[in-house]
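I hope you will forgive my troubling you with a question about protein structure. Could you please explain, in whatever detail you think fit, how the structure tokens follow from the sequence? Thank you for your consideration; the sequence and its tokens are set out here.
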Amino acid sequence: MNERAKARISILLVTCMLLSGCAGDADIEEEPEEIPGCMDENAENYNPDATVSDRSCVYAEPEPEGPDVNLDSKSEFCDDVNPHHCMLPFPAPAFLVQDEATTTGYRLDIPGEAIPDSGSVESGEFHMLNRLDGYSPSTQIFTTFDVVPDITGLAGHNSIGESLSGDHETVLIDLATGEKLPHWVELDQRSQDDEPTFVYVRTVRGLNHDASYGVAYRNLVDSDGNAIEGSQAFVALRDGLSTDSEQIESQRNQYEGLFEALGEAGVERGELQAAWFFHTASTASTLQDMVAMRDDAEQRLGESGIGCNITEVIENYGEDNTTFRLLRGTVTTPQYMESDSPPSTMRRDSSGAPEFIEFREVVVTILIPQVLVDEGSTGLMTVLGHGFMGSGDGMVAGSGNSANMTGRVMIGTDWKGWSHDNDYDALTYSLINVEYFQHQQERHMQSIINNLAMIRTFTGVCSDIEWFHHEGSNLVDVSNVDYYGVSFGGLRGPALMAMVPEVDRGVLWVGGSSFTHQIERSTHYTSFDILFSEVIAYPSRNDRGLMIAAMQSLWDSTDAETFLPFHNEGLEGMVHPFEMLYITSMNDFQVSTLSCDRAVRTAGLGNLEASAWHPWGIEVDSGPLSGSGVAYFDGGFPAVPEGNLAGSLDYHGQAHGALGGLPAAYNMAFDYLESGLISDTCDGSCTFVGTW
């Protein structure tokens, strides 16, 4: 303090003592009154000449500390970790909110604002998605970077085991057990030049239901060998830097748990360029609609069904002496769809559960082979499942030769949702507004109920109708019913067998699982992508890819992969046990061989040693296999493209349809339906010379 200031303080003290009458207390020293702020050099208006009455000094408020990182891109509707798209990384943890009322403790909450708009309509939220308590166990997994990484040397679908090496650049981990899971890596072959490229981590089978997983990308480089940078937001999470995104900050604790789990698995935090976590839905959540409909329908149908109506009877159908009688008619069926004609919605109650509307008549076709009459015998009933956009009538009416050869009575109805019954037009609407895919899937679920009613009725109240008889004897043996599904019918077979207790064995002919993993590899996709990518639809490849991936959570309620883990023992009354034989054609351009590999791994099936293909992770057995298994046939057809591309339409149906006339294949199939054994009918090698 300077001398001038000291003098002024002394004068002030004497004046204070005189005015207060304290001069008589000479033995008491009083502290000088502190003038608030006036003598404080930290005050904004510091004044060393302030008087006692000057108490207007103002202190400067300390500047608040800002975040370490101000993100260039953030939104209240998106996952801010990846700035390239609102829904990346996929499956995005930001849309997984905690909910103590659910089985998993989570609930999906994807707002309509996060879902890409089409060129024709603004998107809203999906009611079927946001009822789920996690992501699909069959989910695709992918993200993007500012530059395309060089994935040379990373695990591919023919080198899956390399993904488990200690230094592999991608890691998929079960967060509960710390186990690293096998996978392969591929770049999006459909990427647009003006958009970042998806980098996929492809699972080799369905993930566990109600389970948490972590995904990590590390040490990736570009084509010049330069290290790839993580996104601004991810680097902030990785390096403990604060951000100006409430959404990012709300996930920080969960990311810290992820980094810790990855570290325990040998993945160093500083090496990470992208990482995230997600949780899969519980079985009960995935099947809530399907099981509710099935249980309600079973009560209404009873043990024997309600009734049938035969509308047409054709003797010697086809006039080739293979078919004794073809019957067309209807079966009375509980209905949960507002209309039979698509696009139509399912009626739901206030809780969102399916609601019964009324009984309606559903078409059905039955074929009785001539051999039963010729031999005076009876034939077991086989339910046929038709292919994509086909019909039950066409499938059954065209089965005369195989029915006559095997002595089986064939029965079928339409797989509504993707059948000839106006579903092509409905699918077209869905490509312009993906919300319509919900209605298509609701029709798929209704189709399971239609099949349940058909089977229960014709093994019950309509099992002894006059048209089943010849010369006083019933030609149809309903004591055991099995299933034979081709192509799309092969994809839907596990759902039917799991939901309908009367059917516990089936052949899944050129089928597979996980629809969204296979669809872009199918030539069927080619014709639809022409519209899907139009300006009126979704011209952005990344929008289309994300929508396809999100749709898996819709398809799960009837997708084979949902049911395959439980085929041996069933599950708590929700899923009935069943047995199956997959018969697959190599280099199939319609249903990829990779999708069959997924199905077989998910179900834990054995692979017949005579098979032309032995996928990674599947046990090989010389046979006969009892219960369930797979056999791959190879006719030397052109190789399918690498990656998520469809092959040339020139070979659209060659491999896919070649097995129908192959004795080794159909003998294996029908021998299995008869005995439950998968035998080598290939003389040691399931190869043949295909025509193409």
